[in-house]
Design goal:
Layout lengths: L14 E3 L12 E3 L16 E9 L5 E9 L8 E9 L2 E8 L4 E10 L6 E12 L1
Antiparallel strand pairs: 1-2, 3-8, 4-7, 5-6, 5-8
């Protein structure tokens, strides 16, 4: 695998890592899209994404949910923002923007899957977008 801004520190500050500043409710590992360490910088362009997905049987399920923390460096270029979204089969169903220098706790991002059945790909995407 070629190393990128989203894969250069897998297991340490990116990907699946141990909780550092706050233990999640489950007490298990966190999944980090980007980097957990503040101040790490990479050359990125609008449209760059990182996401984690999994196959989920949504038969009889009304909503899929996620809780997340979105932290954007203060030095992010003007006119750009990080968008975190909940995707089902690659389609955004819920999203929130993170502005430069801010941290947002999103306690409950949800996607309505009540009209779906069977196995679908559900994920969380982090994308650099024009603001």
């Amino acid at each position: 695998m070629a190393l990128t801004a989203f894969t250069s520190r897998l297991g340490m500050g990116q990907g699946r890592i141990r909780p550092q500043r706050a233990a999640p409710a489950s007490g298990e590992y966190l999944f980090v899209l980007g980097d957990a360490e503040p101040g790490r910088r990479f050359e990125l362009a609008p449209g760059d994404i990182a996401e984690v997905t999994q196959a989920v049987d949504v038969t009889g399920v009304d909503l899929v949910r996620t809780a997340l923390r979105l932290r954007v460096p203060a030095g992010a270029p003007a006119g750009l923002a990080w968008e975190a979204s909940l995707v089902v089969d690659g389609v955004k169903h819920a999203r929130t923007l993170g502005r430069p220098g801010r941290e947002r706790l999103v306690g409950d991002m949800a996607a309505n899957v009540s009209k779906l059945s069977g196995v679908h790909t559900v994920g969380v995407r982090l994308e650099l977008v024009s603001s």
